[in-house]
Design brief:
Largest sheet: 9 strands, mixed
Bound molecules: 5'-O-[hydroxy(phenylacetyl)phosphoryl]adenosine
CATH architecture of the largest domain: 3-Layer(aba) Sandwich
Structural class: alpha/beta
Helix content: 25-40%
Strand order of the largest sheet: 4-3-5-6-7-8-9-14-13
């Protein structure tokens, strides 16, 4: 296997150097936020942290956590650490509550984002001059622009289709010979459907960079088999500066490399906030070390993962690896006394031959008692009985459900809405 790096010096530096850089950058980012923003200063004061005497990594756990709630309360620029006139761009996510989470960027922050994303592209095997089709939306969602800034830094030829108009996406990919495609996983399924309907082949397409939602190995395999491409799992979020800021898996596919010279990533027990040992699942907490406008300090992402390894990877990178995101804390479902994540259902459904990767979990509330209904598309011949049997094995109970013909369930243009809540 051939491995390439966009920035070999940064991506393969030895652990002691990486730790020294984190230590120094942490001290400096703590001083930066405390000296430039009242909200951060007050937060640190409450927690008894004095930026002037803060010692770096050894004091990391003394820093208070940040959460989405802080972003919402400080809307629009209450946590911004630079004058508004220095801002160059912003992105925003609204999430389920509808109150916006805003991330402002300086020109330096855009360059930092582009660096993280360019590392991801090159890690996936993209080469200068490759045609790169960007299918996440261009707008407030960070997906489109993040892919764009990074592709420019990696020297790619950008086809910025954005989301939607899938027939045109497929035609452009064919006509321009797209080699790299980036997108939200569920949208890629839509592209595969249109390719099948129109009988279009995309022989140049080799690399798929997908993220924004959890996807199972089964889903990865279906995308690989359907498109004949290698699928990479890219991670990041509005609060850390967008797609790719929290890394991606390399061609060895043994965890998501974190860009540790740019971020400190911890895994903590969601209940106590204490760090958990490597290998144990907990909540991902991120600290940005190099961002200017709004660096997050110990941001509780709500995402669940575990440290896979801090050893050097066979790709040559020394940056630690996280397991794929197994779900969000607020995604966990408890039905009939059983706790589970939607991803577990996806994994089980896609093991059934003929079942298609389009499904919905409908949660019905009958006066406080929740009932689950599973709707899934499948080729003719797959029976409800087969699906029910597999679901009973994972869940221990049999949910209601139905098997639908291909193309019947609603499709999303952005992130898929797999879980739907209904009042009975
Ligand atoms: O979804 C950034 C992104 C865009 C990543 C496109 C990859 C591709 P937000 O809208 O702020 O940003 O949502 C961030 O999405 O906290 C996770 O819960 C989830 N998420 C992002 N990437 C992954 C992934 C973008 N690879 C939230 N696997 C995060 C699982 C992911 N979940």
């Amino acid at each position: 296997m051939k491995f390439s790096c966009h920035n070999p010096a940064a991506e393969t530096m030895d652990r002691s150097r990486l730790t020294a850089i984190q230590d120094e950058r942490l001290r400096s980012i703590v001083r930066h936020v405390a000296s430039s923003n009242d909200w951060f200063r007050a937060r640190f004061e409450q927690a008894g942290v004095d930026a002037a005497t803060f010692r770096g990594l050894e004091d990391l756990e003394k820093l208070p956590f940040m959460s989405k709630k802080d972003f919402r309360e400080q809307y629009p620029l209450g946590m911004c650490c630079v004058p508004k006139a220095s801002l160059a761009e912003m992105h925003m996510s609204s999430g389920s509550t509808g109150t916006p989470v805003v991330m402002p960027y300086t020109a330096g922050d855009l360059a930092q984002w582009a660096e993280c994303m360019a590392r991801c592209y090159v890690m996936a095997g993209a080469r200068s001059g490759d045609v790169c089709q960007i299918t996440p939306g261009f707008g407030l969602f960070n997906g489109g622009f993040g892919c764009y800034h990074g592709a420019r830094a990696a020297g790619l030829f950008v086809v910025p289709t954005g989301a939607g108009n899938t027939a045109r996406q497929v035609t452009l990919a064919r006509d321009f010979g797209t080699r790299v495609i980036t997108g939200v996983v569920s949208y890629t399924l839509r592209i595969m459907e249109v390719m099948a309907q129109t009988g279009t082949a995309l022989p140049n397409l080799k690399i798929g960079i997908f993220g924004a939602e959890s996807f199972s190995d089964e889903m990865k395999r279906r995308i690989h088999d359907g498109l004949g491409i290698e699928a990479f799992d890219i991670y990041g979020m509005t609060e850390t500066g967008g797609i790719g800021t929290l890394g991606m898996d390399c061609p060895a596919h043994c965890g998501l490399h974190q860009w540790e010279d740019q971020y400190i990533v911890e895994i903590v027990d969601p209940k106590t906030g204490n760090p958990v040992p490597d290998g144990q699942v907990g909540e991902v907490v991120a600290t940005s070390l190099t961002r200017e406008a709004l660096p997050v300090i110990r941001f509780r992402t709500g995402d669940l993962s575990r440290v896979v390894s801090r050893e050097k990877c066979e790709c040559g990178r020394t940056h630690m690896r996280l397991d794929r995101i197994s779900g969000r804390l607020d995604d966990m479902l408890i039905i009939s006394g059983v706790n589970f994540f939607p991803l577990q259902i996806e994994q089980a459904l896609l093991k059934i031959p003929g079942v298609l990767p389009e499904y919905r979990l409908i949660i019905k509330d009958h006066d406080g008692t929740k009932k689950l209904r599973v709707e899934v598309e499948a080729q003719p011949g797959v029976t409800g009985h087969q699906v029910a049997k597999v679901l009973k094995e994972v869940l221990g109970f049999t949910p209601e459900g139905d098997v639908y013909a291909p193309g019947t369930l609603p499709r999303a243009e952005g992130k898929a809405k797999r879980v739907v809540y209904e009042k009975a």
